[in-house]
Amino acid sequence: CAHGGLSDPSFSLPEQALTSHSAARGAAFDQPVALKRQAVEHATAGDHSAILRMLSAVTRSPSTAEFQAQLDLPLYDPTDRFVVKYGPQVVAHCFAVSRMLDFESLRIPVGMVDQLVTLPELRGRGYATALLAAAEEQLAEDGAVFALAWTDRVRFFRERGWTCCGRHSFSEASPRDLLAELEVRRDGQPAPRFGRRAPQTSVRLWWHYERSALLRLHKQYFGPRVGAFHRNDESWQWLLARRAFDRIFVALDGPVGDVTEDASDRIVGYAIASGSRVVELVTSPDHPEALPMLLRRICGDAIERDDCAVRIDAPPDHSVHEIVAASGGRHHHCQADRCVAPMLKVLDPQRFVTQLC
Predict the structure, then answer these.
(1) What values do phi and psi take at 73, rounded to 5?
(2) Mean pLDDT of successive 10-residue segments in the chain (357 residues)?
(3) Least CB-packed of 122, 199, 203, 278 within 10 Å?
């Protein structure tokens, strides 16, 4: 999971085994020893470097910067990670973290399971099963009513009581075709009445001191929905400091204004982009003109970078999907994207149903 019986021989892997699978395999066959039960244990701060080496060797992710960002998560504790070791070396790992999910006015504690990884030479020995069970038990003790994972190991999770739940929702289109569709829609709009100016909306890059505007718009758009992760100001600070994006565009009600102006109250939409992918697109329902303005800026940037397509992640009922479809693009609403599917396991059915009632 990258995104998302413990009877085993006891031997010490050489240091190069973390980067050389053949070396680890040789060490296993060259050292016949008595069987010894390997325990799943909580990681400590001293295990972080070994965990990163193991993850990088097996999955090529996360990067050092992304791993450090995970350590900076609000309320993060090293014991959120479970490991199996041979001596000082980590050979299997699982990351479990508690989150809050909004169900309209109800806020439900849930758990996230990620980075369930075992060295290839030691797979088939029950380590992943034991780690997953330990993570589920810990999340249940922390109060989570169900656990979520985004994983390409669907069969593995399904055999352990998990089920596919939820779908990916995103649209893809040529930036030139999408820009042409937006221009056609603008030309087809009725002219403003005599003596009235059409409302002016401008787009520019976001400034850091305008974080409150992002929080306000996100809460306004996702607050009434079911299943959105809760974000407070601390979560927004971590997300922005993580820098898992290239740029953030904001739509302003009115002109751009002076660089020293705090225009937080005039921000009516934002788009967070990473390369040619828009990972979040939110606009105020009172300002429908903000969406096409943001899309024009996104398409313009994509054309300058010579991207052949743009991807926009958004809920299935978002109006952007209709615009993309009209431009010849495609809306994907599928359970698996690049073999990765969202999966869920209810940890405390009685408490979950009680909270919903």
Answers:
(1) -55, 140
(2) 36 33 37 48 95 94 93 94 92 95 87 96 93 96 94 95 93 96 80 56 92 94 88 92 93 83 90 95 94 96 94 95 96 91 94 85
(3) 199
- Peptide bond preceding 62: is omega within 30 degrees of 0, i.e. cis? yes
**How far apart, in whole angstroms, are the C-alpha atoms of residue 61 and residue 120?**
15
Please state, in angstroms and rounded to a whole number, the distance separating the CA atoms of residues 109 and 144.
Answer: 5
43: Cβ contacts below 8 Å, ≥ 6 apart? 51, 78, 79, 80, 81, 82, 83, 90, 93
AA letter at 306: D
Mark residue 161 as left, alpha or beta (left: phi above 0; alpha: psi -120 to 50; beta: remaining): left
* pTM of the complete model: 0.81
